[in-house]
Design brief:
With about 150 residues, the chain is mainly α. It has one domain. It is about 55% helix and about 5% strand. The chain has a two-stranded antiparallel sheet with strand order 1-2. Helix 1 crosses helix 3, helix 1 packs antiparallel against helix 4 and helix 3 runs antiparallel to helix 4. The protein is elongated, with a radius of gyration of 19 Å.
Length: about 150
């Protein structure tokens, strides 16, 4: 048995919790983006104040595209620990910026993502999850050199 096998998250096939969280968030955001197009369709892509919502979150076509891109990034980057950490930073910085944008843009005619207050709450929570993925501790086993199993 090699020193990197087992449940440490470093062996082939083993996955760390940041990777699992990145993959889960990626899958959720991809699903939300795809389902969003069933709500909004493909017209008025950058519409402001669409009154089209998905579980209380206002969306438009561009908002759906952003969710799809974030979802695909999570699925691709979540395959490795380093990628998951990068995805965490992308979520933290990107959704932190989206939160600030939302504070300024709600109710403005130039709000091309059609953001509402529920979106702002989700954005700040997603930024926090990104920090958890990026900075959370991961245990790794130290193998015993020269020992035979």
């Amino acid at each position: 048995m090699s020193a990197t096998s087992g449940n440490t998250g470093t062996g082939r096939g083993a996955m760390t919790w940041p990777q699992m969280l990145a993959l889960a968030f990626g899958a959720i955001y991809l699903l939300v983006g795809v389902v969003g197009f069933f709500v909004t369709g493909f017209d008025d892509f950058f519409a402001h104040d669409t009154n089209e919502t998905l579980v209380g979150f206002e969306i438009n076509g561009m908002h759906n595209v952003v969710h799809i891109v974030i979802g695909v990034a999570g699925l691709l980057l979540g395959r490795t620990l380093a990628g998951a950490r990068t995805y965490g930073w992308l979520l933290a910085v990107g959704y932190g910026a989206a939160f600030v944008y939302g504070l300024i843009a709600i109710g403005e005619t130039w709000d091309f993502l059609s953001i509402n207050a529920a979106d702002n709450v989700l954005h700040v929570l997603t930024a926090i999850v990104g920090l958890v993925i990026a900075l959370g501790p991961v245990r790794s086993a130290v193998g015993h050199r020269g020992s035979r199993v």
